[in-house]
Amino acid sequence: MKEEILEIPTTLRGFYIETYGCQMNTADSEIISGLLNKNGFSHMEQADNADVIILNTCSIRDNAEQKIHERLKHLRYYKKKNPNVIIGIVGCMAERLRTELIENNNIVDIVVGPDEYRKLPELINEAKEETPGIAVRLSRVETYDDITPLRTNNFFAWISIMRGCDKFCSFCVVPFTRGRERSRSLNSILEEVIQLKESGFKEINLIGQNVNSYRDDKFDFADLMTEVSRVASTMRIRFTTSHPQDMSDKLIETIASHKNLCNYIHLPVQSASNRILQLMNRTYNIEHYYGLVEKIKKQIPDVSFTTDIIVGFPTETDEDHQLTVDFLKEVKYDGAFMFKYSPRENTKAWEMGDSVSSEIKSSRLNQIIEIQNEIASTINSKLIGKTFSVLTEKESSKSTNDWFGRTETNKIVVFEKGNAQRGDLVNVQIIKSNSATLFGRIVE
Ligand code: SAH
Ligand code: SF4
Ligand code: F3S
Questions:
Q1: Given the CA of residue 23, which atom of ligand 3 is nearest to it?
Q2: Can you tell me which atom of ligand 2 is nearest the CA of 166?
Q3: Domain count, the chain
Q4: Which of 27, 265, 380, 405 could, after both became Cys, cross-link 390 (CB 3.0–4.6 A)?
Q5: Secondary structure of 369-400 in HEC code, one letter for each residue
Q6: How far is ligand 1, taken at its centre, from the CA of residue 353, in Å?
Q7: Which residues form ligand 1's pocket by a CB distance below 6 Å?
């Protein structure tokens, strides 16, 4: 795709971008930053003196959208201070709400959906001339293959390998906000990986809404992983997210047989009731899912697993919920992201109503959070005394004396800084743990 470099008025330079939602949005913000940078804008760390303020938004649940509405109220202050500041809403909410965002908020100047980021420079310039700009067409081909993301982290990188989703789980807004599934070419991904390796990066995360259905001609996701593992043999390689339907034996064997492919799998189950799974259009049953877990645990013995659960899906009974509770106890996940069902307009489930009351949703959610915390605490307490290789990411939010890092299996480890620097791989022996964090000390 040809890219036009626009002339930027000298008065318009700095942009600030705030990111909400999933890792796809984090990666997209880096693509947007790369694009704007190439077109003469400069990236700013703070909104205060920015000429352009962009919110990269999420629509997955109602509360994700409410957060943006609240943030927009705060942004009025910036607009008041500087009426020329341009406010842009991009991402999934831009796609979902479109003109509504401009009509209901007289401070929003541009609204741009996930497949139209190439138009951002142009729309920003036009918005300066006081025409609100909207670009929300979805594409079947856009992958931003040729755009170099502007990364702010210099040892860890997200690489978006595909966009969109064709699964149409009945509760989910993503196929509507991100459009049809499409994969980037294997060669362009490998080129990016090699470049990152040469720049000293230590870890990459290959991301997509459903990476297991990656395809470039005859190459599938397992082939891509094999190639990435080969060209980046010294780097840690992660991937998210997997859909249970497409988790192939070939992929499990590939992860098991390559040392630098991390032994960590996020495998959303959503519910353990087959009746609910069917209503959710998840296309697998719980027996198939459990079979996968068994197979993975057997082939990758030290694997760590996380999952996503939705409670209170329309018609979910106490019996359905109990199946999920029992399943959590059976599988013993290392972690779980647990949500109350939130009806999304236009999805299939929207038509099923929102039959579970908010009180029941809350009590089911609290119950599984408590159970899962106990399970994770027990798993983590068994790691005390063991030593792990940890990638030092950032300062711990609780103490300036400590680093925050992760094991290969994606466990968070907090440890005293010693001589370690950000980006260093260090051996840390675990001395203490809770449900979410391991605490340790550096050993030689
Ligand atoms: N593509 C990923 C999921 C992306 S959304 C996958 O399939 O694994 C992340 C999680 O948000 C989902 O797994 C689901 O648990 C939750 N979610 C999605 N839509 C939701 C809704 N309408 N209400 C509550 N949770 C939802
Ligand atoms: Fe949504 Fe399902 Fe696609 Fe995940 S796989 S993004 S939950 S439709
Ligand atoms: Fe949210 Fe869009 Fe990601 S809805 S979860 S930002 S794909």
A1: 3
A2: 3
A3: 4
A4: 405
A5: HHHHHHHHHHHHHCCCCCEEEEEEEEECCCCC
A6: 18
A7: 60-61, 171-172, 209-210, 241, 243, 268, 270, 308, 310, 339, 341-342, 344
Nearest Cα neighbor of 93 from 72, 68, 119 is 68
Give the pLDDT confidence of 190-230 residue by residue, as tens digits.
999 999 999 999 999 999 999 999 999 999 999 999 999 99
Give the domain CATH number at 431: 2.40.50.140
Burial category of 71 from C-beta neighbours within 10 Å (exposed 0-12, middle 13-18, buried 19 and up): middle
User: Model confidence over 245-264: pLDDT tens digits?
Assistant: 999 999 999 999 999 999 99
Do 312 and 367 sit in the same domain of this protein?
yes
Do residue 330 and residue 406 come from a single domain?
no
How many residues in total does the chain contain? 444
**What is d(CA 80, CA 59) in angstroms, rounded to the nearest whole number?**
27
pTM for the structure as a whole = 0.94
C-alpha of residue 92 to centroid of ligand 3, in Å: 6
Q: Are 272 and 260 in contact (CB under 8 A)?
A: no
How many A from CA of 406 to the centre of ligand 1?
A: 24
Residue numbers of the domain that contains 130: 14-135
Which residue has tokens 């990066």? 201
56 membership: H or E segment, kind and range = strand 52-57
